[in-house]
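Entry
Fold in token form

___
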Amino acid sequence: MSESLNTLQILLNLLTPGCSASEQFELLRQLDTAQWEVFFSEADRQGVTPLLYPLLVELENVYSLEFPSKENLYQSFITTAVRNTIFLDDAETLFTKLRAAGIATAGLKGIYLLENVYGNIGTRSMNDIDILVRKQDLAECIQVFEGLGYKPNSYFNLKDENIDTKHVPAMQIPGGPLVEMHWTLLEEDEPFTIDAQALWQRMMPVKIANVDAVALCVEDLVLHLCLHLTYQHYLQLGLRGLLDIALVIDKFKDEIDWQKLVVIAQSWGSEKATALTLELIETQLNVPIPGEVISALLPGGIEPALFENARSQLFERKKFEIRLTPDLLEMNTNKNVFSKIRIGFTRVFIPRIALARIYNVSPKSPKIVWYYLFRLSYLVKNYGKTLVRLQSETKSDEPALQEAKISYSLHEWMIN
């Protein structure tokens, strides 16, 4: 195998749904020790290391494949499995209690995918437990959680408008995983229109942590994961984020109603984000998407340069010394001093409700005014040096600026 080993391409081919054991063996059998090290480093960067252990052990058993770092891979796998077992144990308690209270509960993202798509609980990591309940059930749902000892980690009041958030602040019992209680998939002030009532009408029955529950129908599931990866996370979840969707499509390939998916995407206004994600899945993981689907979502197609930028954002995941937010980028681009001040002013003086959630204080409390000073101090401490550095137009910061411009322009393209 050549020295210019394309470890990303090997990973993509290896994890393509339907790739046979013999094909996987052929991909890996010629790697030497140094190349294995580079391969494992790329897998870690793409968030798919836990997937490798059972796959490689099977190839070892069937084809006598020799691979290094077996103990390290095992530790990664078993750590993920143990952590997920704790998550599933907590989820079983929550879903059981909510079901007993007559509250319909849907599992979102990892807590559904883990058992119903991945199967092996050691192969996909999770950061929290995401559930979806009807908005009218939130008060009772919160009571159930509080009865179990869960407490929110920040301010929240059901009487507030809450259009800038999609879930109750993360709730947790001491030592347990975070739980996010959603009532919608995306914030109401985002430029998408997701009909929560329609979601519930389309739900499918499933088992989650040994409990009868529901989950998004497969079309809604694909669309939600597309938005989660491509729009909400700015294509920054790497291969694992793309693999989630590819595995769902592969598992339910005989059940997906693609025309229905297109109609729902159009009703959400998520045609561009969906089309881009599906094109990435088809071209990078060889999961077939019916030809008419992407053209129905985006009749003009996706420009090659835009697609390549998206692919780069997804897989390269470049790290830079400076961290650029949309506001910093706008302040740097805007040469008018008063415009810069206006942008900074809006970032400091955010709505009271947003400030209340950040600092866990009631928006009606007289003390909240002082938290704007904390907000100013935080922004200066975390972004002040970056802003000054940008004003000096240091050449070494050009790559970071260019990547940020690409990222935020892709984000804007999805909603315009």
